[in-house]
Specification:
Blueprint: H1 2-34, E1 50-53, E2 61-70, E3 77-84, E4 87-92, E5 96-98, H2 107-123, H3 127-140, H4 145-157, H5 161-174, H6 180-192, H7 195-208, H8 213-225, H9 229-242, H10 246-258, H11 262-277, E6 282-283, E7 289-290, H12 302-314, H13 319-332, H14 336-348
Antiparallel strand pairs: 1-2, 1-5, 2-3, 3-4, 6-7
Helix pairs in contact: 2-3, 3-4, 4-5, 5-6, 6-7, 7-8, 8-9, 8-10, 9-10, 10-11, 11-12, 12-13, 13-14
Length: 356
């Protein structure tokens, strides 16, 4: 028993020594990263001791302990060693904003400070950091629609869909008559899997922006996923009337197929092929037209359009037209399903003896 206790004591001592060593290494790495001038005499002193770092406004107000210079000539850089609540940080001296405690900090300046820093973080792909900064801006001006819009985008791109949904609801309350927050809400709810809420938001978007064909297409797709075929077809036909797109026409063809309207399906597929071959537009997720200067916007959808047309024609008595559509689809790219369809259609074609 005493030997086992001794082994456990040695193991515990080793574990504590290892953890202590790891903590020391982490502290050393943090010091080397954020406090490279520790132990050095400042090259220049400062009159104003309290300042903010505009690049990291979430650190709050810090104390400037010294100014340091690195490099020579035109490559010389000026650094400020500061002590924040988060610890010692070394930042470019040009990013400092000295604080005058004799006057209050205006809310508009605080919002602009955090919004600018958040935009920089989003440009670098740091969406979670941007969202944290935008929370400070939102607290300063809760009804600022620009802040609410950026916060929605930051949370959404950062993967926090629950927070994005809360932000987009705040944005929608601040801008009740605009379709933009409803479009974002529909897409966020769709990513969350809440299709019923997404369809409701998409419906509000088309009510506020009835001339937006992309919003009608999104509503139609959501209605299809909710098995509301009649409403889906109505929405997709409305989008076709405003500004047709290849994806919207193919979705309309699906709605017609589910409703048993083979003629409507064939017509929609034929229109999609014509639009794709003519360099028509293909809408992005924001409802805007995406243009391809070399091959037209909808060129990547051309094989899918021909394939859908071939399958639609195969459900009619136009077997020769279906075979031709299969040939056109296969000429644009290999597709095993289209190849099988072509072979089955050829087997069904009547064989005619050549003329004597």
């Amino acid at each position: 028993a005493s030997a086992a206790a001794a082994r456990e004591a040695r193991a515990e001592a080793g574990r504590r020594a290892y953890e202590s060593r790891m903590r020391e290494q982490e502290v050393g790495a943090d010091r080397r990263r954020h406090d490279p001038f520790a132990g050095q005499v400042p090259d220049h002193s400062v009159v104003h001791r309290y300042a903010r770092c505009l690049s990291y406004p979430e650190w709050g107000v810090g104390t400037v302990t010294g100014i340091y210079f690195t490099g020579e000539g035109d490559a010389m850089q000026q650094w400020a060693r500061m002590r924040f609540a988060a610890g010692v940080r070394t930042v470019p001296a040009g990013s400092l904003q000295f604080v005058d405690f004799s006057r209050p900090d205006p809310g508009a300046e605080r919002v602009q400070r955090f919004v600018t820093a958040a935009q920089h973080a989003m440009a670098e792909g740091e969406f979670k950091l941007a969202a944290r900064r935008l929370i400070y801006a939102r607290d300063a001006e809760p009804q600022n629609t620009a802040v609410l819009r950026l916060m929605t985008l930051a949370f959404w791109q950062g993967g926090d869909l629950t927070a994005a949904a809360r932000a987009v609801r705040d944005w929608a309350r601040a801008e009740r008559d605009r379709p933009a927050p409803q479009r974002f809400a529909a897409r966020i709810y769709e990513d969350m899997g809440a299709l019923d809420l997404a369809a409701e938001a998409a419906q509000r978007a088309v009510e506020r922006g009835p001339a937006d064909a992309g919003a009608w297409e999104r509503l139609g797709r959501l209605r299809l996923r909710l098995y509301d075929r009649r409403a889906a077809r109505d929405a997709l036909e409305r989008a076709r009337e405003i500004t047709p797109s290849v994806e919207g026409l193919l979705d309309l063809a699906l709605a017609c197929q589910l409703a048993g309207d083979i003629g409507g399906e064939v017509t929609a597929c034929e229109q999609a092929v014509v639009l794709a071959e003519g360099g028509g537009e293909d809408r992005t997720e924001d409802g805007d037209a995406a243009l391809d200067a070399s091959h037209g916007a909808a060129a990547p959808l051309l094989p899918a359009a021909w394939s859908r047309l071939a399958h639609a024609l195969a459900r009619t008595d136009r077997a020769s037209d279906a075979v031709e559509a299969c040939e056109r689809a296969l000429a644009l790219g290999d597709d095993p399903e289209v190849s099988d369809l072509r072979e089955r259609l050829r087997a069904l074609e009547p064989r005619v003896l050549p003329a004597a």
